[in-house]
Structures are given as structure tokens and as C-alpha cells.
Predict the structure.
Amino acid sequence: MRTWTTRAVPAVVGALTLAAALTGCNDSATDKTKGTSTKTVYRLGEASPPQNSSMTRSKDSTFTVTPIKVETGTKADVENSGLKLDASDGAQVPVYVTVKYSHESGKAMPLGDMDDDLVVKTSGNQRTKALLVLLGQATWPNCPAPDTQKQLGAGQSETVCTAFLIPASQTPAAVELTQGYYNPPLEWPVKN
């Protein structure tokens, strides 16, 4: 029969204290997420949960984002767009993302306040934001530039096409909606 020595007791107490401390850390992290949705991956055509506006002018308003369709353009689309690319960017192709934005609640908000956090993730795990086209600098076939100043009131929605540029050697892997630094992005995988 084995007996406990006085030297073994401090080691056992230390191990139990460490285990309790680690368990306590895990419980507190879990408590922070209780009651919230942990779903972050959606199918194209499936709406996001309501998002809170981060813009001052539409504070306390909510909206949903529904990526519907993703199409990859060609190098010729870029050449014919009127967009001037820097040679150091290499060959680029446009990705056209059709998205439905729906204003859910709160004061009216410009369409541009809803599309600011949308990105395209590529097969090379790069992320790119939508092209900012000023004063008609670029035009895309079947993807007219949206009126980002158009106001949507609660219950209204708008379906728009947005252009993104990615390296020609890659394909779009997903549309993502970023949710700040501490939350994982929402993702709509693209089947190629």
C-alpha cells in the first residue's frame, strides 16, 4: 500500500490549483458567448444576422447582408474598364459580387454604410475590399456602380453589384463580412 509523503502533498495541491485556474479561465470565456449565435458560415443567398451600423450618421440602425452571386471576370474586362492599374500589381481580374442589403431597423441609412465591411477572400487566402471608383473612373460589364448615397429606410432593400480585383492566378474562395477585430468574419463560400 502506498502512503502520501509530505513532499508529494505540495505538488498535488499545486497541480489541482493550476487545473482549477485553467478551468476557471475556460468558463469565463464561455460565459461571454452564451446566448449569442456562433454560426459564421452561410450559403450564397442566405442572409446574415442583423448587423449594427458602425457609422455615426446611422448609429443604432441595423441591416442584413445577403451575397447572392459571385462571378469572375476576365483580364479583358480590366483592360476595357478604363481603370489604370500599377504595373507592380501584376495581372488582375475583377470579381463581381451581387449582394442584397436590407435595412432592418433604426433611422434611414445610406447604402454605402452597409457595404463597407464586405471583402472577397481568394484561393490564395488574400482578402480585398471593393474597388472605390471615383467619378466614373471604371465601368464593368453587367455590374453598374451602385449609388452608395441612396437612403434606405426600415423595411427597404437594394440589390447591387460590386466589383473587387484579385490576382489573375487566383479564384474567389468566399465573400466575407468583417465584424470588427474581436469577432470572426461571416463567410459565404464560393463554389468554383
